[in-house]
Prior knowledge:
heterodimer; A: 108 residues; seven-stranded mixed beta sheet; 0% helix; globular; B: 122 residues
Amino acid sequence: EIVLTQSPGTLSLSPGERGTLSCRASRSVSSSYLVWYQQKPGQAPRLLIYGASSRATGIPDRFSGSGSGTDFTLTISRLEPEDFAVYYCQQYGSSYVAFGQGTKLEIK
Amino acid sequence: QVQLQESGPGLVRPSGTLSLTCAVSGGSFSTGYWWNWVRQAPGKGLEWIGEIYHSGDPNYNPSLKSRVIISVDKSKNQVSLKVSSVTAADTAVYFCARTKWQQMVYYGLDVWGQGITVTVSS
Lengths: 108, 122
C-alpha cells in the first residue's frame, strides 16, 4: 500500500501569509486520484481539491493544488482566519484509500 | 442535497461488536457513488475503514479486514458497518462519507456525515 507523508506536521503562519503544505507518496501515484481535505475541530473533513489541482465546488480560489508523481502541494495564497485548520491529503488506488497524517495550520 | 447521518450505540464493551448505520437522504444512492466508513481516534488523523458500492461490492483496509463487514441496504438507502472483537483502540469518531465518480473522474470523498463518537469501554 502507498504511504502518504505530509510535512510539516505543524505550520505556524499569520493571516495574509502564504501557506505551502506538502504531501509525499511512498511511490509514484496518479495525480487523478490525489485529493486534499480541510478539517476544523469538531467537524467532518471538507473536500478542497481533487485530481491534485481541481478545486471542489465552492472552494475559494486562494486554494490551489499542484504536483505529480510522488510530490504534491497544497497552497493557500493569502491565509484568512477561517483557513487555520488541519489539512489531509488522500490517495485512491487499487481499491484502497490512504490518508496522510495531516498538517496542522495554526495562527502564529 | 444529499445528507448522511450516522447512528448507533455510543458505548461498546471490549470484545464486542460495534454496529453503525449510515442513512443516505436527499440524493441518489446508486450509480456513480461508493459509500465509505472513515474513523478518527481522539487527537489522531483519519483512517479509512472501507467502501462499498450500491451493488454490494466492498473493499476494506487490509489492517482491519479480518474484523470489518460493510453492507448496503438499497431498499432503505442505508450503509452499515460492523467491527468485531473491539478493543479500546477502536474508540473513535466514525464518519460515513460518499465517494463521487462521474464520467470516470474521481472526485474524492465529497459528502460526509457529522460523525458519531463510539467509545469502547467496560
